[in-house]
Write a structure and sequence with these properties.
about 60 residues; mainly alpha; two-stranded antiparallel sheet
């Protein structure tokens, strides 16, 4: 089994889905990982944003 790290797309996808599902991160953790790929994946999931190489889309909740 691969270890979870930010270079693993499966790990980032799980973080995205966790954010999309309403998973919360404590402020101290968000500040610790701010600017990282992990934080970006969580924020995009939390905001319900998704896209592909041709266009960016958002989900209306």
């Amino acid at each position: 089994m691969n270890s979870p790290d930010a270079s693993n797309p499966r790990f980032l996808h799980r973080i995205y889905l966790w954010g999309y599902g309403g998973g919360q991160m404590p402020r101290w953790l968000r500040q610790l990982i701010a600017g990282s790929e992990t934080h970006r994946a969580w924020v995009l999931g939390r905001d319900g944003f998704f896209g592909n190489s041709e266009m960016c889309l958002t989900i209306l909740r």
